[in-house]
Structure formats: C-alpha cells, structure tokens
C-alpha cells in the first residue's frame, strides 16, 4: 500500500507542487460550489430556461476564444507565477463583488451574465499559464504524475464542491453558498506568494520578447502528433463536454429534482472523473495516439447512453463511467501535447489546446441550450455523444491512414480487434535543443517517437518498454531563479 501511495502521489514530495495543488484544491472547491449555485440561480431567475443556462456558459468561455492565444504568449514571455497571482486576484475580487449582490438580494439575470463574462476573462489568462506552469514545479520524470494529480485535484473539487453546494443550497440558500465559495477562491494567491522561486524549473531565454503567437501555430502545424489530439479535443470539447448546461436542466426539468439532487448528478460525473485522473497518475511515458482515440470512442458511447437514461438513478449511474472516460481522455490528450512539445513553445501550444478544448464551449453551450429548449434536454445529451463518437472514428481513420497501420478482426480464441502496425523505416533522430527541458520528438529515440505516435500494438501499455529498446536519459536541469 505504501509503495502504491508513494507512486501515485510522488509529486507531492516537492514543496512548491504541494503549495500549488493545495491552493488549487481549496479554490476549485469554491469555484464548483459557485458554479452549482450560479446554475441554480439562473434557473430561478429565468423561469427554468435551458437557453439562459447556455448563454451563461457561453459567456464564461467567450474570453477563452478571444484571449487564450495571447495568454499563451504571455506565459512564454513573462514570469508565470506572477501572472497567476494577478489572474487569481482578479478572479477573487470579481467573485466578492458578485457575492455582495447576491447577499443583498438585488441580483438580476444580467448581473449573472456580466459576472460570468468577467470570470471568463480571468480564467482565459489563468488557465493556459497554469497548465504550462506545472512543468516548472517538478522535474521531467515527475511531470506525468504532476499533471495527473492536477487533474485529480480538479475532480476532487468537482466531487466535493457540487455536493457541498447542494446541501448548503437547501440550508443557507444561494447567498450563503456564494459567500463561502468566495472565501475559498482567494487561496491560490497566498500559495503562489509562498513558493520558493529558486526551486522553480524553467528555461533560460536570451530574448523573451520573441514569443509570437503565429510561430506557435506554425510549430503545431508542422507536428502531426500534436494536431490529432488538439483537433479531436476541439470537436469533443465543443459538442460533448456541455454538462454544465445539460445536467442542471436534466435534473430540474426532466427528473423534477431539487438542488441537492442536481448536486448528486454532478458529483457522480466527478467521482468517475476522479477515477480517470488517478488511473493516469502512474503514467511515466507519453501516451500513444490510439490510447487517446480509444478513450474518446468510449466517452462517445457512454454519453449517448446517458441521453436515453429513463430515470434519475440510471442517469446518475451512467455518469460515473462517462466521467471516468471524459477525464481519462482529456488527461491523455493533455499529456500527449505537454510531453511532446518543445519547452520554448509550451505556453503557446497549451494556450491553443485550451482554446480548442474550452474556447469552443460558447458555441457548444449555445447549441446545447437551444437544442434542449426545442427538442428536449435528453436529445442534446445523446446527440453530443453521437457526434463525439463520429469525431473519434474520424480521428482513428486519420491516424490509421497517416501511419499505415490497420485494424484486423480475429475470431479465435474469441472475437477481438487487433491493431497491426505497419513496417517502418526509422528516421534519423533529431538533436535535442540545448537548455530545453522536455522537448518534443527531440527528447525521444526514433523508435520511442514512433511508439508515442500510436504505432505500438493495441492494448499494450505505453509504459512497457520494447525488448532491446534503449531510452536516452532525461535531460537534467538545475532550478533557475526567477527574476
């Protein structure tokens, strides 16, 4: 048991990462409490309109569409820790102002819309910077574990936040929930201030002024192994990940449930998501493309099933595996991008990932709200699952065609589908860039790069090295003091 714990939580040995994870956990519990109360407040102020929920969700993510790429440029140019302090301070001040309006009993629907937009601006700056900042908290061998624990932290909060909000909504009403959530949202400001900057791992750049957004886009365009997960998450993020809109409406309109029951649906989704995050915590190597695609196919099937759930209990049970594969997918795609990108471009590439994954939400949320209003909430859920499955199948076809691999159906000893990898001529390895930590294919041998692209045998764990395979040592870095 101790060995398992040491493996699963090994990144927590690093003090700066402990501060980061602790601050995020406290804040995110408050954020999920806030979002749960906000969704319920919108339904109360709009006479149970799914369309109003769609507008609020869209407003939260419109700034992601407009500002995220620029935020990635900031992450590659300036001190990430200082950017995070400012972004979290703005978030906290905005939350305090809105909590005062709710507590005073004068809140109106347009106030909620404005609040969602302002929080979206703060998040548009904070999210890509935070994603890139994780790589500066730990050394390269710990990065997969640190990323997995960050996802686990997020989903632990997603379990506790809505469940706690559901109880408090019935006891204290929305004003009490907002006041408590606001206090919790301040935590990261203090944890970032307490970090030891001399222990941060970064890269030394002679000129931080050359971090152009266009260069980052061109870099991704040259990397097919980055394009596939980014394009796949763009489609699924827009169509499939609209649970903030659909679950509240499903609970209240279709199942006639109260606030606490709505919290149970969100909690069921988050319990599965936490399992998906922990399932990837032991990952030590870059996940292959087929692992990402397989998780996407499973998610599409399960979300489709949720749309046909006949009652509240069945929906809640189906949301657990749906949550598992939603985060296992998002985490595998995130790891594939983070662990394959040159450190000089990490901020801009992660900003692009956040843009396509979260920035498409305004479109998807608006469509889900409109569809639910006209054709029923369940149909908006199963349609999202169907489109997610089709997008995943298209990604599979793309990967098979580009790699030359093929799928083979075998009936003995039992029916199964097996991936047959095409024979390959190994390209000459690229030379790692000096001073760059965690470079993309430059940090891999040709054979490992081919395996990371998803050319290994189906069902084989990526962490299992091939016989006779020689891995280069991870590049070593000394902590770089931040100026």
From TrEMBL:
Q: Which GO terms describe its cellular component?
A: plasma membrane
Q: Pfam families, per this entry?
A: MFS_3 (PF05977)
**Primary residence:** membrane
Membrane topology type: Multi-pass membrane protein
Flavoprotein among keywords: no
Q: Which keywords accompany this UniProt record?
A: Cell membrane, Membrane, Transmembrane, Transmembrane helix, Transport
Query: Where is this chain compositionally biased, Low complexity type?
Result: 446-455
Region Disordered, residue ranges: 422-483
Which parts of the sequence belong to the Major facilitator superfamily (MFS) profile domain? Answer: 16-403
Q: Which residues form a coiled coil?
A: none
Question: Is Cell membrane tagged as a keyword?
Answer: yes
Q: Which residues cross the membrane?
A: none
- Provide the GO MF annotations for this entry: transmembrane transporter activity
**Subcellular localization, as worded in the UniProt entry:** Cell membrane
InterPro entries for this protein: MFS_dom, MFS_trans_sf, TM_effector
Q: Which SUPFAM superfamilies match?
A: MFS general substrate transporter
Name listed for the protein in its UniProt record: Putative MFS family arabinose efflux permease
């Amino acid at each position: 048991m101790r060995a398992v714990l040491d493996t699963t939580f090994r990144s927590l040995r690093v003090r700066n990462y402990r501060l980061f994870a602790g601050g995020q956990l406290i804040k995110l519990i408050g954020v999920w409490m806030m979002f749960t109360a906000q969704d319920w407040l919108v339904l109360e102020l709009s006479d149970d309109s799914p369309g109003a929920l769609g507008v609020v969700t869209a407003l939260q993510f419109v700034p992601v569409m407009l500002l995220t790429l620029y935020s990635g440029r900031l992450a590659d140019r300036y001190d990430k820790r200082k950017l995070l302090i400012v972004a979290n301070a703005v978030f906290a001040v905005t939350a305090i102002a809105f909590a005062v309006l709710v507590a005073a009993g004068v809140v109106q629907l347009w106030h909620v819309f404005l609040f969602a937009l302002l929080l979206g601006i703060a998040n548009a700056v904070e999210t890509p910077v935070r994603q890139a900042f994780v790589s500066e908290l730990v050394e390269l061998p710990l990065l997969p574990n640190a990323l997995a624990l960050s996802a686990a932290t997020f989903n632990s909060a997603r379990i506790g936040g809505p469940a706690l909000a559901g109880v408090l909504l019935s006891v204290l009403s929305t004003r009490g929930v907002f006041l408590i959530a606001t206090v919790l949202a301040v935590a990261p400001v203090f944890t970032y201030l307490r970090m030891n900057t001399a222990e941060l791992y970064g890269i030394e750049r002679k000129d931080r002024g050359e971090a152009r957004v266009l260069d980052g886009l061109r870099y991704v365009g040259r990397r097919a192994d980055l394009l596939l997960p980014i394009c796949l998450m763009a489609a699924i993020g827009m169509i499939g990940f609209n649970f903030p809109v659909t679950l509240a409406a499903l609970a209240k309109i279709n199942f006639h449930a109260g606030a606490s029951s709505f919290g149970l649906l969100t909690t069921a989704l988050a319990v599965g998501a936490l399992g998906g995050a922990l399932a990837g915590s032991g990952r030590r190597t870059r996940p292959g493309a087929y692992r990402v695609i397989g998780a996407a196919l499973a998610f599409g099937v399960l979300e489709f099933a949720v749309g046909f759930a006949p009652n509240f209990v069945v929906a809640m049970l189906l949301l657990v595996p749906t949550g598992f594969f939603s985060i296992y997918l998002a985490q595998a795609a995130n790891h594939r991008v983070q662990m394959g990108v040159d450190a000089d471009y990490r901020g801009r590439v992660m900003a692009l990932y956040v843009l396509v994954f979260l920035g498409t939400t305004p479109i998807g949320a608006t469509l889900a709200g409109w569809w639910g209003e006209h054709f029923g909430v369940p149909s908006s859920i199963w349609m999202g699952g169907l489109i997610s499955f089709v997008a995943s199948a298209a990604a599979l076809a793309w990967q098979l065609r580009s790699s030359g691999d093929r799928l083979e159906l075998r009936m003995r000893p039992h029916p199964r589908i097996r991936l047959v990898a095409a024979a390959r001529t190994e390209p000459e390895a690229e030379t790692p860039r000096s001073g760059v930590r965690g470079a993309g294919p430059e940090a891999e041998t040709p054979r490992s790069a081919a395996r990371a692209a998803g050319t290994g045998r189906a069902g084989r764990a990526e962490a299992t090295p091939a016989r006779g395979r020689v891995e280069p040592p991870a590049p070593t870095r000394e902590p770089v003091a931040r100026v």
